[in-house]
Every structure is written in structure tokens, then in C-alpha cells.
Automatic annotation (TrEMBL):
Residues 9-124 form the Transposase IS200-like domain. Residues 217-239 are annotated as: Disordered. One of its GO terms (molecular function) is transposase activity. Pfam families: Y1_Tnp. This is Transposase. It comes from the Bacteria. One of its GO terms (biological process) is DNA transposition.
Amino acid sequence: MARRPRLYLPGCPLHIIQRGNNRDACFRDNSDYKAYLHFMREAATQYGVAIHAFVLMTNHVHILATPSTEESVSRMMQSIGRRYVQHFNYAYSRTGTLWEGRYKSTLVDTDNYLLTVYRYIELNPVRAGMVGHPADYPWSSYSYNAASVEIQMLTPHESYLALGKTSALRESAYRDLFQSHIPDMDINAIRFATNKSWVLGSEKFIEQFERRVGVAGKTAGHGGDRKSKAYKKSTTLTH
């Protein structure tokens, strides 16, 4: 079966996931996390990728980013992957692959899902039972988005900037977003769209994408429209 093409739309952010091979650990020591972040910062700068949010888990990585060109993210991930595998194999006297095939990604509907994906990414350590609050996990973008901790590679998205006129107001509003649960339907939609490389968005957004690009944005039976009765029911049940 032919590989599904990477989805791209100018100015549209992507949610990216890369997993360790066989779900094995791809980070064993603090120096590994630091090395990956160093390589990501350099590659993002080199290939014109704006990083908005990230989390480095023990055996996988999540990134929310907006590429400047159709090839920007692919080149960034290839560069990170190549350099980090060399680091990891040398550090632990191993050979062979580290990653589980190609990275996966999905286009994110800014108006309906972007800030939810921010939260989904930074809440990964909480859902995994590693920490009680995202502020307690050192290898994510939460400290930058919620508490002004400097992380040089990060570029705030316009939707984040719209949370407030000052950094203090934005950070306060951002922290408030974490006071409520992400509805199960949203979590499932994010996972499905990313794993299958479909568009994460409302029916309107997906239809607009399909008209502009001429590529299917979803599979039958898996929408993401927040105006649907199913979504509203899910929201009611999960809050």
C-alpha cells in the first residue's frame, strides 16, 4: 500500500509524533533530553520551523510546529533523528535504529483545536502518571507557555498571543486552560488524526483544506466538528 502523503497547508501548524522503536526508551538520562532539545533548536532554525509546544516522553516525542515550507518539517525531523541516533548509539554502545519508522503528523485547525493540542502535548506526563501537574515535568514547553521560563527555540503562535495583551495576562489565561479536562472526544480525535495523518479540524476546515489541496482530509466516519451533538454530549460527560 502506498504511503499517505504528508499534509501541508501554508501557515497551518502540525502536530508531530515520533516514537521509539518497539516503544523502547529513547531517553535514558538527562543528557539525552538536553541533546535532543539542542538538535531540535538547531534544526528548527536551519529549516524554518516555528516550534510552539513540545514534550519529550521516555519513549516518544510530541511537537507542535508551523513550517515555513512544505519540506521544512521533514528536513527538521530527519536532521534531529540522524544526529540524535548518533548521540544515543554512541552513549550506550549500541547500533541500529532507534525510531519506529517515519514520524507521524497532522494539520491542526487553528480556530478549533490549536490550544487544545498545546494542552494535550503538555499534559502527556500527567496522563502517563509521571507527575501530578505539567509544571512538575522538566522536559516540556509548559514552563515557557505558563511561567515565562526562557526556552529559546519556542515561538508563540498567534492563538497563544491572543490570550492576553501582556505576557503575564497570557500566562495566567494559559494556566486557566489547564483547570478543566480535555474532553475524551478531543483526545481521541487528536490521536486518530495524528496516527492516521488526517486533518484535525471541524468539518468546515476539512472541506476547505480538501478544496484547496485536492487531497482527502479525513476518512469516512471520523469527523471533528465541535458543533455536533456527539461532541456536546462528550463535553458534558467529561467535565
